[in-house]
Amino acid sequence: MSGLDTLLPVTILDPWPAPRVLAPVDVTVSLPGSKSLTNRALLLAAIADGPSVVRRALRSRDTLLMAGALTAIGATVDTSGDDWTVTPGAFDRDAAVDCGLAGTVMRFVPPVAALSTGAIAFDGDEHMRNRPVGEVLAALRALGIEISAGDRLPFTVHGTGSVPGGEVTVDASKSSQFISALLLAGARYEKGVDVRHVGAPVPSLPHIEMTVEMLRAQGVAVDTSEADRWTVAPGRVAPVDLAIEPDLSNAAPFLALAAVSGGSVTVRDWPRHTTQAGDALRQILADMGCTVSLSHDGLTVEGPESLNGVELDLHDVGELAPAIAALCALATTPSRLVGIEHIRGHETDRLAALATELTALGAQVTELQDGLEITPAPLHGGVFHTYADHRMAHAGVIIGAAVDGIRVENVGTTSKTFPDFASFWSGLLPGEL
Ligand SMILES: O=C(O)C1=C[C@@H](OP(=O)(O)O)[C@@H](O)[C@H](O)C1
Ligand SMILES: C=C(OP(=O)(O)O)C(=O)O
């Protein structure tokens, strides 16, 4: 397993005493790059028709796993600097791909591996064997690819060097990544790819918009004129030269610091136009009573005297749910978060994990099939378990900022998308520990 332990500070205690914030904070932060943008850029670069550069790439477990996967199948990825270079190569060898716990690696790489003449074996962390991928494998089989084993990790893709492509139907109600996966590789299929979704509504639509926007930026023609249908024309993928935006979903715990302390937090370089789901934080935090402003300094959130509860459908932005749920547990009125059954298939069953951990600290939480009802109650200290889920750790540190005696178990799991998160977080709060 690529634990990438070198990314983790060795001195972080486990469980980690989360810094308590005793006065309003007033900080400005620059955050690492977006996981979703970095991994799409790397993948497109590997199937482009010339060398690429991914500027200010996120250096984290998920992105290094993507770089490792693309290198294993035949691309050359230089991750030594802040700007990563990618040189496409022949996909002509047998290889093993470690997906870790990265959905973007497990779902996005197999459709590219299908272009190889080698046998590409995929596996990952133990929990990754529970995360859904069968719909992508079934689609690839329908497009003529041989894949051994069933519908979960581990599996092996046996490419023949080319993929006919064409029409395929997918039920993407469990993850938008099933659609993105097929679209990202589709231009390199002989007939392109024409993907229809049939099933309950697709979650996380901004992530599909991100895929489509990035494909178009590389000169790929994508037709989205019909609902639940995406058509990618066959053709070249132009070399990538992209500067990665800060990860707006990972901004959630930082902006939450302003919300819970009644202080002010500015995240630099917040993009004016973006397809990142995390941009929804602006409206969500305003709904909770924060003052939110976007200026040339970045996005500034000022916390209110007391936080409002909210009723939200997070279907489009489910990756924000853990941080929002933590804020709801610290609000003064009840909240209801719905539309997020699919996050039971994320790094852990996030609805069950949030209900368990918030309840253990004294919150009143009802777990719904597709969400959470959270009624504020006085919280007390304790260990906040993270289930190897970076966003559960973010939820834990948010609670810990506002409640005495919170210790976050395995805070190092944040390395999935944020290098050295715990040190960065405590460095923002000097003298307040
Ligand atoms: O395509 C992507 O980069 C992602 C899509 C979303 O997945 P789901 O559609 O499975 O929620 C999101 O939650 C995940 O963090 C990243
Ligand atoms: C769901 C997430 O990740 P993944 O890309 O592994 O699906 C996430 O980061 O919240």
TrEMBL record:
From the Swiss-Prot or TrEMBL record, state where the protein is found.
Cytoplasm
Q: Domain of life of the organism in this record?
A: Bacteria
Leading EC class = transferase
Q: Which CDD domains match?
A: EPSP_synthase
Q: Which residues form the Enolpyruvate transferase domain?
A: 24-422
Per UniProt, the keywords (alphabetical) are: Amino-acid biosynthesis, Aromatic amino acid biosynthesis, Cytoplasm, Transferase
Catalytic residues in the record? 319
Which family would the database say this protein is a member of? Belongs to the EPSP synthase family.
Provide the assembly information.
Answer: Monomer.
Q: What exactly does this protein do?
A: Catalyzes the transfer of the enolpyruvyl moiety of phosphoenolpyruvate (PEP) to the 5-hydroxyl of shikimate-3-phosphate (S3P) to produce enolpyruvyl shikimate-3-phosphate and inorganic phosphate.
The molecule here is called: 3-phosphoshikimate 1-carboxyvinyltransferase
Report the source organism: Nocardioides phosphati
> What gene, per UniProt, encodes this protein?
aroA1
